[in-house]
Amino acid sequence: MAGRGGRGLVPLLAFLGVMAYSLSMAVVTPALPQIQHGLHTSPAGAAWALTAMTLSAAVATPVVGRLGDLYGARRVLLAVLAVATAGTVVAALAPTVPVMLAGRVLGGVGGGVFPLAYTIIRDVLPPARRAAAVGLMSSMLGLGGAVSWCLAGPIIDLLGWRWLLWVPVIGLVPGVALAWWIVPDGRRGGDSRAPARVDWWGAALFAAWLVAALTALTEGMDWGWTSPGVLGLLAFALAAAGAWLWVEGRVREPLIDLRLMRVRGVWTANAASLLSGYALMAGGLLFPLLVQLPEGTGYGFGGTATQAALLQLPASVGMTVAGMTAGLLDRRVGSRVVLLGGAVTTGLGYAFVAVEHGAMWHLYVGGLARGIGLGFAYAAVATLVVAAVPPEETGVATGINTLLRTVGASLGTQVSAVIVVAVPGEGGFSAGFAVSAAVMAAVLPLALLVPRPGRRRARGTGPGAVPDPVAVVR
Bias category Low complexity: which stretches (predicted)? Predict the structure, then answer.
């Protein structure tokens, strides 16, 4: 059990864990060509170094969140950080692609630090400081991307790509020690409750349909959207999803309480996370691709990979700063307004580059607006979910929210790639930017549907009753 001084360091530990995971996810992207060469594989094989961790994180995040709700954040956080550290070390030392992928799958378990961090913040900080802490936590995504792009070039050039994979260990190893020292122990729910059980059947079915669906989305461009592989994966995903819904509706202690997902403050924030994830990765594909296309196309800039990375840097910094300030704005105007402002800012940035992208400064302006807007939006949806659910459901609810952001990101990458291929020439980029602007416009009605302050009204009685959004949601 942490003392008074130790408790003050708990949010710092949460930030450190999230930052380390964000780095471990992001550092692979700039090193993909070197990984391909170093491990003697194809571009698709190297890309799986990123895909494997994304799929693993997508499955692990809600499962780890649920385990944290049942058994307490401390013991689950220690296990997650230990597994993620081991996976990162395995990936850095990997002599072959299969070993690399095994390490990245283990590293993806680190995605569980997000719901655990939100749970820790809710347990430790007073209500007046939670929104600021949640906003800062969400900003770690942008900061991790910015740091990875800044470090990638010098480390790869001077030390080699493997050293880039060691960078996250700098945060993960001390994170394990700090978690052991300062995170309060204790299980949620009190001693009066019967020991909770994990819905392992639900977890297995959830993992099955999610991995199948995300793999189909990831490989659709390479295999073909009507190929037997993609269609088979989608069919399997639908069948497994149906079985999962059937199980979750009948077990006493489901992995994910589907009634909770129907609470208005939760489903609106989850839908906004899905769309915001799309907007994040759509730009992550369209902006660098446009910069690196040859000038001979008439609309490309003939830039290098370094120039493409520098274009991403202001957006990442803007996202970080916006996330840090979102909590202060939340206390003044509420999460609904912060989400509205983030959606409008991101949409305007995309709308601008859909019309004007003939000069690099156009891309910088649009990209910066995108980064700032998404920083506000990510912070707002996380705050809304934390405020809308009972404390014992914080981990699984924020885990699902993070998962939907990942699914949206996969859609953003794949749909934008299809648009660029389907619409020839410059029009493909204009259409891709315009679709992203429209996606963020769809966030506006969701923000307006977020519940206003009101009294807590319990739906039903007894164990498992789902409350309406709490009064702190504004």
Answer: 464-474
